Amino acid sequence: MSVVAAPSPVLAVPGAVAAVPGSPDAPVPWHYGDPLGEQRAANERLALVDRSHRFVFSITGAERLTWLHTVTSQHIAELADGRSAENLDLDLNGRVQHHFVLTELAGTVWIDTEAERGPALLDFLGKMVFWADAKPQAEPDYAVLSLLGPLAHTATPALGLDRLPETYEALPLPGGGFLRRMPWPTADSFDLVVPRDQLMTHWTELTAAGAQPAGSWAYEALRVAAARPRIGVDTDDRTIPHEVNWIGAPDEYGAVHLQKGCYRGQETVARVHNLGKPPRRLVLLHLDGSADERPTPGDPITAGGRTVGVLGTVIDHYELGPIALALIKRNIPVDTQLTVDDTAAAVDPDSVVADDSPQPGRQAIERLRGR
């Protein structure tokens, strides 16, 4: 099941430019005439991004957290009020089906995820309730905005707050909804999940308070630079959590807890953690900017004429130039010369997460063998 989000009213703001048809961000502004300047504002000052095409739903009921804990990858059974986490739904083989952000607030779990995947996630969770006191339900009247930048504290009066939340903390807003701090795409990233009929009110008040309008181009460029994957663009139907750095508890900014009980796909997660290595890894690529055209997501990546990976998000960054995320074979050396179509590409070595630490399972086997 898929969904096409309705065009955002922010597209009517003077200067707003829509993304190309077919883009996952087509319902919201792509930029406002200065995409690189908007990225700089989000990184150095304060910017406001319309992400109202996110799919939002809620879960109520006394067992909402303990039930959700049993069917997803993150440890959330005892998540405190006003706290958030990232989470995954995996299939039986441990492949990623859904990535979402959840917030527990005042007796309700709020979930937001990609627009085209939200209905399928909601449908799956609804089928898994059985006898638990948990009620997943769509919330079409809620929308997401993102406030980015080190000057976010200047916007607290416009939000009716006296402080900013800590990472993964959520503070209720006076008119409904909440402000949540995220650890990405920048060090100062905040999501507003608000009633949809207040979307333009918040937009007007925050821009009047000094937030510069920024399009989804700015958000995506900063996300790619931070090497944070987007499901369905930087992942495929074979992706497992270890390949895209989604392993970790909430305080580790991950989406898969390695010390929790059984859930669908856990066997693959445990096996890779204890005994194996993921076949691929997510990396940041620097692309040759002299090419006439940019490669596109899904293009094969080659080394010496051999396919070694697949391209994900491609974007122009205000400092780094053309960059992309990619899934490449884990055994490809960082300094390998890569090509995407006719475009040269190079792995950013700082984006490679070291995975050479001893594996617990193999260490145990060696101890049993007396080594």
TrEMBL record:
It comes from the Bacteria. Residues 37-245 form the GCVT N-terminal domain. The keyword Transit peptide applies. Residues 349-358 have a biased composition (Low complexity). InterPro entries: CAF17_C, GCVT_N, TrmE/GcvT-like, YgfZ/GCV_T_CS, YgfZ/GcvT. Residues 280-348 form the CAF17 C-terminal domain. NCBIfam families: ygfZ_signature. PANTHER family: TRANSFERASE CAF17, MITOCHONDRIAL-RELATED. This is YgfZ/GcvT domain-containing protein.
